[in-house]
Amino acid sequence: MPHANSLDKTLRERAAAVIPNGMYGHESVRLLPDVYPQFFGRAEGARLWDVDGREYLDFMCGYGPNLFGYRNHKIDMAAKAQAELGDAMTGPGAVMVELAEKFVQTIGHASWVMFCKNGTDATTMAISTARAHTDKRKILVAKGAYHGAAPWCTPVPAGVVPEDRAHLITYIYNDIESLEAAVIAAGDDLAGIVASPFKHDAFVDQQMPDAAYARRAREICDARGALLIVDDVRAGFRLARDCSWSLVGVAPDLSCWGKAIANGYPLSALAGSEKARAAAGTLYVTGSFWFGAVPMAAGVATLNEITSSTYLEHTERLATRFRNGLAEASRRHSFGLRQTGPAQMPLILFEDDPDYRIGYGWAAEMVQRGIYVHPWHSMFFCSAMTDADIDQALGVADQAFAALHKGRARLEPHSGLLAMLEARH
Amino acid sequence: MPHANSLDKTLRERAAAVIPNGMYGHESVRLLPDVYPQFFGRAEGARLWDVDGREYLDFMCGYGPNLFGYRNHKIDMAAKAQAELGDAMTGPGAVMVELAEKFVQTIGHASWVMFCKNGTDATTMAISTARAHTDKRKILVAKGAYHGAAPWCTPVPAGVVPEDRAHLITYIYNDIESLEAAVIAAGDDLAGIVASPFKHDAFVDQQMPDAAYARRAREICDARGALLIVDDVRAGFRLARDCSWSLVGVAPDLSCWGKAIANGYPLSALAGSEKARAAAGTLYVTGSFWFGAVPMAAGVATLNEITSSTYLEHTERLATRFRNGLAEASRRHSFGLRQTGPAQMPLILFEDDPDYRIGYGWAAEMVQRGIYVHPWHSMFFCSAMTDADIDQALGVADQAFAALHKGRARLEPHSGLLAMLEARH
Lengths: 425, 425
Fold this sequence. Notes:
The structure is a homodimer of 425-residue chains. With 425 residues, chain A is α/β, with parallel strands linked by helices. The first copy, chain A, has twelve helices and 13 strands. The first copy, chain A, has helices at 7-18, 73-83, 95-106, 119-134, 176-186, 211-224, 274-282, 293-308, 311-332, 357-368, 387-407, 415-424; strands at residues 40-44, 47-50, 55-58, 112-116, 138-142, 168-171, 190-195, 227-231, 254-257, 268-272, 337-340, 347-350, 371-372. In chain A, strands 4-10-9-8-7-5-6 form a seven-stranded mixed β-sheet, sandwiched between helices. In chain A, helix 4 packs across helix 7, helix 9 (311-332) packs parallel to helix 11 (387-407) and helix 10 crosses helix 11. The mean pLDDT of chain A is 97. At the A-B interface, helix 1, strand 1, helix 3, strand 4 and helix 4 of A face helix 1, strand 1, helix 3, strand 4 and helix 4 of B.
């Protein structure tokens, strides 16, 4: 950390006493360069301020929830108006029906929806629905894909027993042969196929879905009576005003949603086609706050923005500018950049960087100059970003590449990352 | 439903089109008398108004979250002040550390805490922590106890595979012999024992914990190196300003929290003793909204109320008045009432009522007169209730018993409930 007497440092020390390892989960900075702040003081639009007052243009958007800008006025007003009435009451508010109708209208394949709190709730409910629908057990998931942090799917299986994953079979994303082999391995016990909308695993290049692979997954499910599940929790509404696989012309039976659907208010969802309705209706799924009306009001306002604004074209245009500008700047400074996935959800890795030291070095130079990027996770654009923001980010990127070039010989791998990577292999 | 043209009816019809069965989870009224409203328009203090404007004194408190009154001014102000700064950002706010410190100070056995969104998140993390700590697999749970709605614990196991529960062993709550038999069944593979703070299963009399049983569970865990887990999600802070088992002098290794800890803002938690810290730190557990600062600010304000107000004595006193008054009124009208569990979390059943028709009849008479009670689930008091509220509720109860007495011969069992009970047996 740059400032020994920073409030961030003090908070980390206090946190270490009362939180295991001082922080947990995806917002722990344990696997990020040391200059990254752990705690934030405030956020507005596309910007964040850490607890020591340093400002950042935020290309993580809360790891996805921020789609229309932090503290978006319209969405916050809708949430506040509902808060004046009630939130977690003894039954849902009328807004739940309004939101469900709007959701089903927006998602092409959906005829029903159930709301929950975590993305993991939605993915877990999806596999239970597939099992209830088929009365079969095997679930196919792509190797390395993230579908949440419950025992059946967490990427770090501490405290997990083998039975939690007894009926999971893995296949390689975008690889039809591998998918078909997994289907054969499932025998007559195939309940469902889970797919990310695109391959957005951490630490490796992202891949857009191959349309032939997506269609094959659909065909297999139709032939076998299994359910096709698209886990759109991370990418939902950043690629399309519909399920992300609408872009390859494939409609799933179930889609999982979260992150951006209420612009940061805690809300996730499982949406399904008519075929899956009866099975979904047999599940007992619930949570203490699942019927809270405030996040649902924010969800309605968010869907209104999604369907009525040009947010998608705007973020795609800015993201493409950023991608092209970065490619140019990196070439100028003789770095080979691998920018993968959709421009508005980019992953940025470096060529010839097996232990990620170059990527970490660049990210550290960026964040120290007020541009919050991530060295190994998909990043996120939001509609509050402007051309001036992209100008600033590209200007800083130029400086960051220059500084990186100069200090390249002194770069070292991140010790925590190395330990984690070794534990994985 | 009493009003054919009610907004509630219209909303139910709309909901049936876009939500499986029209509603799911614990806030569905499918298993309640037909006169219960499904949708609510607003809430304030201890009162609710349904979407058709009918007012209720609410003895469910949102199924627990409402501890200090709906829209509690102090707590809402704290949440709003944080909302002006930021909620779900790219990292947590300083308030997370403040909340963790306060939580650990408040809970006697705890030296660390991790925050999450659902009670189920906390109970699932608890069993994973026990397994990680012991490197063993077996988890003992009381037969019929509710610990959430994930595949390993949901009470309606549709879509669940046997492997989800492969290492669960059940015992009978408060029964030392049964607990010891379960321990023997676990062999040398015991990871943890899960206990509710008191037996609060639906449909059956509640039971306070027998201190000898609680102590025996503690002894067994100590002797075997297993972890003792108290699932305080439902009861937390309604019985004590500490883990509920502090009342029987037994400190668990892990306690699960949710519902009331932020007075309705979506927040749950797993708290642990020093012994369990390292194991908890090995888990990868997270969720998109787990670092949201607004519910944490509400949590700090709620803990302030818990530690500085007389809410506990106030609700206990009112609840005891209600219990005594109901007992008297029921005797006056020749009904045998079974009021079990802590007075401030009562379950009210009737003698000689095997198919619950009397209880349903009474609940229907109460709710039609503006007192929202529940015929088979623990109920909840909140600190916003007053003596005048109890006067009103007891006055209505007298009328309800009288009406019930008069119409007793015409009572019929609830068809949905009957079907559910038959499916269970």
